[in-house]
Amino acid sequence: MWNVLAAHDSQNPRQVLLCAHWDTRPTADEEDDPAERRRPIIGANDGASGVAILLEIANALRVSPPPAGVRFVLFDGEDYGPGSDRMYLGAKHYASMLPEPNPEWGVLLDLVGDRDLQIWRERNSEDQAPEVNDRLFGAAREAGHGAVFPDDVRWTITDDHLPLLEAGVPVVDLIDFDYPHWHTLEDTPDKCSPESLRAVGETVLHALYSA
Ligand SMILES: [Zn+2]
User: Fold this and answer.
1) For the chain, how many structural domains are there in total?
2) Cα(67) to centroid(ligand 1), Å
């Protein structure tokens, strides 16, 4: 397995971490038909949505650099499974060999492309990095995307942010877990929308530029 790493302004003493997972679930566990359950998912939303936003953010940073350096990490093995003992593999590995200096803050994007997008403050993120949630939900309001980011806590999610939080990186998970196509063969691009990707991308960019 491979994590994909990229850096913008790597010598800057101030760093921000932006991450997502680029693998997709090798088994469509949520399908009803056992034969279908053995097939891999496309993962348009569960995986690719976060990667798409980070690639476009990287383009934006090249045109207009933010005050802090940005580390991009695309994790492998987030959804490998089948059990949670064989998930979050790339994030656990990255958390065990963190480069210096520690990022001031970070964001994990997962399931952020849903057509009907609503991103709430995730419970583990809110407990361990509330100031990062404040920064992002404030940025969402200022960027005009407050309707996509209801400012209240919903969902408690085990995801790639947990090994990072444990290693001392204040990173929050932006995720819309209310997605009926999760871990099915129906997680395809038509369930996603460019407006949703834009709302999340502009929110993260706004937070980066006002850091
Ligand atoms: Zn998944």
Assistant:
1) 1
2) 33
Q: Indicate the pTM of the whole model.
A: 0.97
From the list 54, 198, 203, 56, the residue with the least C-alpha distance to 113 is: 198
**Which residues keep their CB under 5 angstroms from ion ligand 1?**
46, 79
Distance 12 CA to ligand 1 centre (A): 33
**Cα–Cα distance between 175 and 155 in angstroms, integer?**
9
pLDDT at 34: 96
Which residues span the domain enclosing 109?
4-209
DSSP secondary structure letters along 36-69: HHTSPP--IIIIIHHHHHHHHHHHHHHHS--SSE
Strand partners, 5: 73
Q: Domain with 152 in it: what CATH number?
A: 3.40.630.10
